[in-house]
Design brief:
Length: about 190
């Protein structure tokens, strides 16, 4: 990762601390996502919940290493606008496509398949995001869901599904605020 991108990520971390309301993943979770994308060689990445683009930049940097692309969905117009500016600053505008809208309405419109998905949006809707995206997830796709420790109660239905589904293998990773790490085995 080049120094200008590292600097931008640092600015976004400071911005979140000063302003709040953007709910970015902690830096260690960003690095974890980066490592997962690189190690799985994911090429088609779907992110639900962009905010100001912090996690998208981690995913986009990894996608640059794998020759991949990121599609990210954000419902809040001001956050989507900010994210687009941050993607440009990071030199990732050609690697990250942002869809503005409600993920529950936008996921069914997606074409193609994905080998990596990161969910970090409205917690009670994780189950809906997952069910809508499941048909578009390739065999051995990696699915990551943030906040699995601090919002376990709100994510209860999602966590129960991925931990007990016959076509999935899932485990909680105690990093950041908790990441549920799932692999689609069929």
């Amino acid at each position: 990762m080049n120094e200008s991108v590292k600097k931008l990520l640092g600015e976004l971390e400071s911005f979140e601390k000063k302003n709040g309301g953007f709910f970015n993943v902690p830096p260690e979770t960003g690095k974890f996502l980066y490592n997962l994308v690189c190690s799985s060689k994911a090429k088609n990445i779907l992110e639900i919940g962009t905010s100001n683009g912090y996690s998208s930049i981690w995913l986009g940097e990894a996608a640059a290493k794998t020759g991949g692309k990121v599609t990210t969905i954000e419902i809040a117009e001001n956050k989507a606008e900010m994210a687009m500016l941050n993607f440009k600053r990071a030199g990732l505008s050609d690697r990250i496509k942002i869809i503005r809208g409600d993920a529950i309405k936008e996921i069914p419109k997606l074409k193609g398949s994905y080998d990596f998905m990161f969910i970090d949006a409205i917690k009670k809707d994780y189950i809906s995001y997952f069910k809508l995206a499941f048909p578009n997830l390739k065999k051995n796709a990696v699915i990551t869901a943030d906040n699995a420790i601090i919002f376990a109660k709100k994510m209860e239905e999602y966590l129960s599904l991925v931990r007990n589904h016959k076509y999935l293998s899932s485990v909680l990773i105690p990093i950041g605020t908790g990441v549920e790490f799932t692999v689609k085995i069929v």
